[in-house]
Amino acid sequence: MALVSAKEMLTKAKAGKYAVGQFNINNLEWTKSILLTAEELKSPVILGVSEGAGKYMCGYKTVVGMVNGMLEELNITVPVALHLDHGSYEGAKACIEAGFSSVMFDGSHYPIEENIAKTKELVAVCESKGLSIEAEVGSIGGEEDGVVGQGECADPEECKQVADLGVTMLAAGIGNIHGKYPENWAGLSFETLDAIQQKTGDMPLVLHGGTGIPEDMIKKAISLGVAKINVNTECQLSFAAATREYIEAGKDQQGKGFDPRKLLAPGADAIKATVKEKMELFGSVGKA
Ligand code: 13P
């Protein structure tokens, strides 16, 4: 199946009270693990690409070529969206040009008027090409690709203004942060989430910083309108732990010479396990 916009899968998720996982990709092994797991579990999936990861993978056209090739050669039948994560205005335009099926324009660091103006322009471009677009209000805390946010709670009225521009999905800060949560984290603000959902109605809401949020909070967030949950750090941690274990056990020294395919295999399997666990928690298994 060719790449699809995330619109239909998220509309169904919001109506069916489950969430589609966005798993960020960094290389061929991660991409393959995520696609094979989605296919095995018959789950829709969103592949997230940060601007930094896009550069690392030789640019957006390489990413599009790799993902399209895998969809065909791995016989992937479940809906897959290729989505720019936390894109700049220029990054979003470059991904649209390169063949992504979905983009996020993160204008949360601009004054709201400028965020609205830029989001509006990109909504029109995406609409004309049948692509989905995510906007953000209220910055998500923590650090991602060198961008540091403070984890604020979005203003529900501003969320409504941005949702009304015709975006496909809306990321709103509700105290969530990227990376590991600190010991003294106050938790998600369900009061804010509830207020945002009341103002934005059917709009699928996006929860960033999906790593390390307790299961009961994930379930409550889904019950209050979250239809897409982003996970990145947890895949990084499981990949690193499995690779480290393999090397520390001296397994990379066995046999003749050094085989990079064997070295990366335990990490790739660890990502499959993490993705499976998340898809089961988010309720997207069997929803393709
Ligand atoms: P984590 O790295 O905390 O899982 O967050 C991922 C994310 O929100 C990507 O946009």
Outline the structure in words.
It contains eleven helices and ten strands. α5 runs parallel beside α6. It has 288 residues and is of the alpha/beta class. The protein has a single domain, classed as Alpha-Beta Barrel (TIM Barrel). It is globular and about 65 Å long. An eight-stranded parallel β-barrel has the order 1-2-3-4-5-8-9-10, surrounded by nine helices. It has a two-stranded antiparallel ribbon with strand order 6-7. The model has no long low-confidence stretch (mean pLDDT 94).
Question: How would you briefly describe this protein structure?
Answer:
This protein is α/β, with parallel strands linked by helices and 288 residues long. It is built from 11 helices and 10 strands.
Helix segment count?
11
The helical percent reads 40-55%
What is the radius of gyration? Answer: 18 Å
Instruction: Enumerate the spans where pLDDT stays under 50 for 5 or more consecutive residues.
Output: none
Strand order, sheet with most strands? 1-2-3-4-5-8-9-10
Helix/strand order? HEHEHHEHEHEEEHEHEHEHH
If you average the pLDDT, what whole number results? Answer: 94
The biggest beta sheet is recorded as: 8 strands, parallel, barrel
CATH architectural designation: Alpha-Beta Barrel
The unique ligands bound to this protein are:
1,3-dihydroxyacetonephosphate
What is the tally of beta strands? 10
Sheet/helix structural class: alpha/beta
The backbone outline, from C-alpha atoms, is globular
Distance between the termini: 12 Å
Strand content: 15-25%
CATH topology-level fold name: TIM Barrel
Q: CATH homologous superfamily, by name? A: Aldolase class I
Number of domains: 1
CATH class: Alpha Beta
